[in-house]
């Protein structure tokens, strides 16, 4: 299901109020156009009708992709994360969200940033495993940090548009683009399959911290 509200916001540029559509819950099967906006990173970008400036307005949103069997909750705070975990614990009784046939295969994720929501929505739509992607991203960052010890990597994301690239956003605004070859993905997936599963139980946040835990533990066990 989807839940939509019309609400008012204040433009940060001209301080005028204007209405916008806020998606508390967005189901990609029911609202494919809004889901497409989300996947292109446009859902949270609004243009002020008074001054025509574009701003990003992020807010908590529950995204469901029934075809990919995934629910991703964008949260603003710890309470939002707790509420989502509580919701998941009540499933599959909350059958409004599901076609009940595939409830056991669902993946549940919590993200704190609209860019991460867009990234994960794309990863799952492509049939990829976000845990493998986080490991690939972590390795890419480690490689760059080794070669260029003076750079500070602020954020790392998989590109939304093809070709598949890992984008490293550096302090100062520049971006390093590294290709993500299919054989790297499958190699990481096979090599770390045991550790990936071992660290997945009860995990809703699959990010770079999670990747670090998986790789650190694996290195310790193989020392
Ligand atoms: Zn304005």
Short description:
The protein is of the alpha+beta class and 223 residues long. The protein is built from seven helices and ten strands. Helix content is 36%, strand content 26%.
Question: How would you characterize the overall build of this protein?
Answer:
A five-stranded mixed β-sheet has the order 1-2-5-6-7, with helices on both faces. Strands 8-9-10 form a three-stranded antiparallel β-sheet. The longest helix is centred in the middle third of the chain and has 18 residues. It folds into two domains: 123 residues, no CATH class; 92 residues, no CATH class. The chain is of the alpha+beta class and 223 residues long. Zinc ion binds next to loops.
How is this fold's topology laid out?
Layout: E1 3-10, E2 17-27, H1 32-39, E3 45-47, E4 54-56, E5 61-65, E6 70-74, H2 78-90, E7 107-111, H3 114-125, H4 130-147, E8 153-158, E9 165-170, E10 175-179, H5 182-191, H6 193-198, H7 208-221
Parallel strand pairs: 2-5, 6-7
Antiparallel strand pairs: 1-2, 3-4, 5-6, 8-9, 9-10
Bound molecules: zinc ion (ZN).
Zinc ion (ZN) is lined by residues 11, 13-14, 16, 48, 50-51, 53.
| Backbone structural class | alpha+beta
Cα-atom radius of gyration: 19 Å
Regions with little confidence, pLDDT below 50 for 5+ residues: none
Beta-strand proportion: 25-35%
Helix content: 25-40%
- Kindly state the number of beta strands: 10
- Backbone shape: globular
Report how far the terminal alpha carbons are from each other: 49 Å
